[in-house]
Amino acid sequence: MADTQELQISAARDEIRQVYEWLMRPNTATLAACEPALERAVSSMRALSRHLERLPQIPPAELKAAAVELASEIARVQILLATAAKLYLGRMRELSGSS
After folding, report:
1. Can you give the pTM of this predicted structure?
2. Cβ-count burial 34-68 (b if 16+ within 10 Å, e if not)
3. How far is it, in rounded angstroms, from Cα 97 to Cα 71?
4. From residue 43, how far is each of 11, 38, 39, 40, 77 by CA, in Å?
5. Separation between Cα atoms, residue 16 and residue 18, nearest integer Å
6. Are 67 and 6 in contact (CB under 8 A)?
7. Which residues make Cβ contacts (< 8 Å) with residue 11, sequence separation at least 6?
8. Is 76 within 8 Å of 20 (Cβ atoms)?
9. Each residue's pLDDT tens digit, 48-95
10. For residue 20, with 0-12 CB atoms within 10 Å meaning exposed, 13-18 middle and 19 or more buried, which class applies?
11. Measuring CA to CA, which residue among 50, 51, 16 is closest to residue 34?
12. What whole-number percentage of the chain has pLDDT above 70?
């Protein structure tokens, strides 16, 4: 895999894994930190996409495999984000006294 492509996938994966770790122990600080981390991951993937559009050949198999693995990690983070949102919404309702 080319160095640029490898760095972009690695950067996105690092951000997604950090978000996953934060969401395993959610609190207001970690939830607030998720948005910029996810934006950085998206930025890395956009850069990778632009780079791939300029390639005359089909991307290497290892790049495709890395992208599929990253997609799986993103799916896990989506589940955790939804769960954290439900948790905090329920907590806000409790604190406000509504049901």
Report:
1. 0.72
2. beebbebbeebbebbeeeeeeeeeebeeebeebbe
3. 39
4. 9, 9, 6, 5, 17
5. 5
6. no
7. 40, 41, 44
8. yes
9. 877 777 766 766 777 778 878 888 888 888 888 888 888 888 888 888
10. middle
11. 16
12. 92
The two tokens of residue 47 are 């850069």
- Residue 67 CB contacts under 8 Å (≥ 6 apart), including other chains: 9
Scanning the structure block, which residue is given the tokens 């632009």?
A: 50
Residue ranges per structural domain of the chain? 3-96
Determine the residue type at 12: A
- The DSSP code sequence of 3-46 is HHHHHHHHHHHHHHHHHHHHHHS--HHHHHHHHHHHHHHHHHHH
